[in-house]
Amino acid sequence: MTRASLDKQPHEVASMFDDVAERYDLTNDVLSLGQDRRWRKEVARAVDARPAQKVLDLAAGTGTSSMPFARSGAYVVPCDFSLGMLRVGKRNHAWLPYTAGDATRLPFRDDVFDAVTISFGLRNVQDTDAALREMHRVTRPGGRIVICEFSHPTWAPFRTVYTEYLMRALPPVARSVSSNPDAYVYLAESIRAWPDQPGLADRLKGAGWSRVAWRNLTGGVVALHRGFKES
Q: Residue 201 and residue 210: Cα distance in Å, rounded?
C-alpha cells in the first residue's frame, strides 16, 4: 500500500489514490459523517453550471463530483491523474469524457472552459501556484473558478477538537472502511499543513484571479473559494 509524503511527489499521490479508488466514495461518506454530500451540493450551487457551458472538474476521481454539472446540462470534463480512480469512474459512468491529466500541466487549450472547479484535490498538488495558473489559462475570459477544500475552523475550541479528530480518530476509522488506511494519515497531515482561508485567497490573486472571495462550510472545516478571470 502507498502513502504519499507531504512533499507530494505526483507518482506517490497518484499511486495512493489508485489504492483507495474502489472504496473511495464510501470512505469519504463515513469519515465526513455524510457532510461530503452537502459540500458537493454547495459546490454545484457556487459553480452554477448552465446548459451548454463547459466545466472542467479537476481531481474528479470517480466522477461523483462531476454528476451535478452533467445533470445541469453542462458539458463536464472529469480530469484526474489517478488512473485507478478514472477506471472506477469509467466503469460507473461510461458516458462521461474522463481525461487523465496533471493539474500543473493541463492537456487543454487556452480559454476553453466557462468554469473550472476542484474539490479536495488542490491540497494534493505538488505546486499549488502552478495549478492555479494553469486553471486560469484554460478558463475563458469572464469565466470562474470554484475551489472546495478543507480549511481552518473559525472557532478556536472547535478547531482544537477537530485537530484531535484528524490525528487520533480519523486513521482508526479509516482502517475499518478503506483499502489503504495509511492514505488517510497523509490526509490528516496535509489538512493540518494547508493554508487558511485568507492564505488561499492570496494565492488565487497571485495566480491572476480577480474578485476572489470565500465562504465557510461546517464552521470552516471546509471553505469554498471563488474567483473570476477578467474579460
A: 10
pTM higher than 0.70: yes
Q: What is the pLDDT of residue 3?
A: 44
Query: Each residue of 101-137: b (16+ CB within 10 Å) or e?
Result: bbbbebebeeebbbbbbbbbbbbbbbebeebbebbbb
Residue ranges of the annotated binding site for S-adenosyl-L-methionine are: 62, 80, 102-103, 119
Those residues whose C-beta lies under 8 Å from the C-beta of residue 155, and which sit 6 or more positions away, are 219, 220
| pLDDT number for residue 18 | 56
pLDDT of residue 24: 56
Give the H or E element holding residue 165: none
Residue (of 116, 148, 121, 114) closest to 134 by Cα position? 116
Residue 217 is inside which H or E element, if any?
A: strand 210-217
Question: How far apart, in Å, are the Cα atoms of 159 and each of 17, 90, 134, 147, 165?
Answer: 27, 38, 32, 21, 10
Strand order in the sheet with 210-217: 99-100, 75-80, 54-58, 113-119, 139-150, 222-228, 210-217
Q: How many CA atoms lie within 13 A of 76 on its CB side?
A: 28
Q: Which residues line the annotated binding site?
A: 62, 80, 102-103, 119
- Residue-level pLDDT at 178: 55
Low-confidence stretches of the chain (pLDDT beneath 50):
1-6, 30
Instruction: State residue 179's pLDDT score.
Output: 56
